[in-house]
Amino acid sequence: MLKGKTVVLGVTGSIAAYKTANLASMLVKQHADVTVIMTENATNFINPITFETLTGNKCLVDTFDRSFQYSVEHVALANKADVVMIAPATANVIAKLAHGIADDMLTTTVLACKCKKIVAPAMNTNMLDNPMTQDNIHRLRKYDFEIIEPAKGRLACGDEGAGKLPSEEVLFAHILREILYEKDMAGKKVLITAGPTIESIDPVRYISNHSTGKMGYALARVCAYRGAEVTLVSGRCALAIPEFVKTIEVVSAEDMFEAVEAVYEDMDIVIMAAAVADYTPVNVSDSKIKKKEGDITIPLKRTQDILKYVGEHKKPGQFICGFAMETDDLVANATAKLESKKADMIVANSLREPGAGFATDTNIVTLITKDNTQRLTCLPKDTVASVIVDEILKKLN
């Protein structure tokens, strides 16, 4: 995923430094070239050998280390870096960076870097809230540093409050957003629906489907990483909410329709990836559930066809993409939906193919537009999402 990308991780003197070891491992697994620079104080919390073992690169601490090849090492590394992240970043190092002080290997390298610089503060709540620290963070933002908001919880000192280093997954997501894709969706607003809807029969039972939301969430991540402003309308999913995405959580098809109706007009792209229940019970009570020879009959009515509504009310310049889950006549049925729903694209996939459909990390889809049909091989859902976005952008451009 990150082959050919160079990531510089700065580690300062905080107990949270152990998280950066996990972050370095995550980056290396995605084939990034990772170099870690530590302050002298950081070596009291974690040994440089840990990072050297994980990354395969020398961990830099001393600006005047003579074991380097002949080069001005901090300048060479600064020129090579695609992104720099300082995590954890202490109040001391934040103050140095905010005022251009370069008195060690880390601050010297960061000052020489022209790439994006991301800072993740980690410290006691009182230190974080101190007006001087807040002024320094403000100065970094003014100089185009990206600041990751500290998490809240129990700190190493025993206090409760803001100041925790966010999880490795959050740090990783910030790096991916910066270097994984070109920002070819910058300025675009995207609405995505994902996951299942639930139609209650009674306080205990409901009608739903097997959707996990993985495909819709992959689309939300990819669009956000490519610079779009993403709104995700999601049914109940056992998935972590994607970073950098505004999420509206819903339950029923009616909830989803109301959420979509409220925001879709402002969107450039609408992608309806949710598996909406086709039917909902009508005023069900025990007296209206008919039981005969062990069978139960429940009165139903069709739920709102959200894709059709959006297609019929499409605004000038909007692109509408729907999904079709089919078991037979995949292309024919999906093409019919393209026309009847007035969509610009239908992404069709079959439940009958191994590696496709619900709950898998891969998918096999066919992209259908008015003038083209393109079948993709079995691919990871993030890759499928990227191809879908590529095709949408081609149509828009």
Topology (SSEs and partners):
Elements: E1 6-11, H1 17-29, E2 33-38, H2 48-55, H3 73-80, E3 83-89, H4 91-98, H5 105-112, E4 116-121, H6 125-129, H7 131-142, E5 145-147, E6 151-154, E7 160-164, H8 168-179, E8 189-194, E9 199-200, E10 206-207, H9 214-225, E11 229-234, E12 245-249, H10 253-263, E13 269-272, E14 279-281, E15 290-292, E16 295-297, E17 300-302, H11 306-312, E18 319-326, H12 330-340, E19 345-350, E20 362-363, E21 365-369, E22 372-375, E23 379-380, H13 381-396
Parallel strand pairs: 1-2, 1-3, 3-4, 4-5, 8-11, 8-13, 11-12, 13-18, 18-19
Antiparallel strand pairs: 6-7, 9-10, 14-17, 15-16, 19-21, 20-23, 21-22
Helix pairs in contact: 1-2, 1-8, 3-5, 4-7, 9-13
Short description:
Helices cover 33% and strands 25% of the residues. The protein is of the alpha/beta class and 397 residues long. The chain has 2 domains: 6-179, Rossmann fold, CATH 3.40.50; 189-396, Rossmann fold, CATH 3.40.50.
What does this structure look like?
With 397 residues, the chain is α/β, with parallel strands linked by helices. It has 2 domains: 6-179, Rossmann fold (3-Layer(aba) Sandwich), CATH 3.40.50.1950; 189-396, Rossmann fold, CATH 3.40.50.10300. It has helices at residues 17-29, 48-55, 73-80, 91-98, 105-112, 125-129, 131-142, 168-179, 214-225, 253-263, 306-312, 330-340, 381-396; strands spanning 6-11, 33-38, 83-89, 116-121, 145-147, 151-154, 160-164, 189-194, 199-200, 206-207, 229-234, 245-249, 269-272, 279-281, 290-292, 295-297, 300-302, 319-326, 345-350, 362-363, 365-369, 372-375, 379-380. Strand 1 (6-11), helix 1 (17-29) and strand 2 (33-38) form a beta-alpha-beta unit. Helix 1 packs parallel to helix 2 (48-55), helix 4 (91-98) crosses helix 7 and helix 9 (214-225) packs across helix 13 (381-396). The radius of gyration is 25 Å and the shape is elongated. The model has no long low-confidence stretch (mean pLDDT 92).
